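Hey L., structure's done. Input below.
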Amino acid sequence: MSECICAIATAAGEGALSVVRICGEGALEVAEKVFFPFGGKAVAEMAGYSCAYGRVMDGADRIDDAVLTVFRAPHSYTGEDSAEISCHGGSYVTERIFRLCCKNGARPAERGEFTKLALINGKLSLTQAEAVADMIAAQGELTMKAAGLARQGRLAQRIDGMKRRLTVLLGKIAAWVDYPEEELPEVTDDLLTGELKAVIDEAAGLSASYDAGMLLKKGIPAAIIGKPNVGKSTLMNLLLGYDRAIVTGKAGTTRDIIEESVRVGDVLLRLADTAGMRETEDEVEQIGVELARKRLSESALIIAVFDGSAKPDEDDRRLISEIKAAEGGTRVLALINKSDISDAGSVSEYEELLSGLTVIGISAKEGDGQRELERAIEEMYLGAAGEDGVLFVNERQRCCLDRSLEHLRAALGAVGMGVTFDAVGIEISEAAEALAELTGERLTDSVVDEVFSKFCVGK
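Output:
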């Protein structure tokens, strides 16, 4: 067992409960020195996965009434003896119990040290350990499901499957090269090409999931754009649920960019309300328009707003051309606003001009169409997830995948050029090594330090 460590496992601040976690060699002895169950049963006699109600004592000083939960090795999160004291959630009482545990033989835990112990003791793979941090940081249903799948070992299974294919391929190459006189299945260029392409496709797909995962975790850069007075700021306030942007009947009220994070359904947006885009002689308004145009080019999601109560004019047509010319990775939602006072002929003209885009009729003022907007955004970003969710890789994992892909593509190129199978095998071996680093089979101190530096204390 490792030395005894201790940490406050719940968030700082006041709450109904706090948890002080103790783990490692002597953890139950430390708990026994500070916690005294009502009824006289000793902590040492408690079975694993059992709780006791009692008091926390510092000598003769009664600190708090609490509940102690005992986990005995190897059937615990870390694989070692552990105990958790659930006390009242005041900052002072929690800190005092933590200091009391340290005074009686535990030392303060480092960031992620409990999960690091679970990794060292074989309770978790490296990708499962990383998924613990992702689960804590999840910002929505999809990111939570993705972290849950990785926590269950799905990512490690995918990587292991690729690694097995490469290992089998290496075995075939070695046997074919070393024992040419034996009657072994022939290793052909077509066999190598087929297997390498299959692994490349899977590795490339996982690597590409990094960008989508980061967008969903950190928030999707989104911009509300449109002419002045079409209801952009009213829409911003509707999505936020409170009045953040100034709304007046005067065109051009918004001249600077207003930014807020807002959850729309299960998608987190980093939403910007921009100045109205139109031709103007006003120097200050021109600056706002240029900022809006710049934000249009930088955003992953464009929410273009049009006034359904008026006919499309040249500014509208110019804007529609700009959003249709947006980069391929940019997604566009077109909203025909003011559905409560809209003109059927105007709406029809807009729908014709906006053909090929997702178009929704709303009234930002009355709140009509808000749920349809939420569903459209969820469908854009969550629609391909399926019932079980998807896997997202983190930056470290992506780097390992990209290294593996580099060697796999080099191996594929070598096959195409007729290079000897020995040389091809070297590239395949390097690709497999990179995958082994991803799952933690080839674990270095620097990798462990990098992974757990991102954890909170107490997990």
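DSSP finds 15 helices and 13 strands in the chain. The radius of gyration is 30 Å.

-- N.
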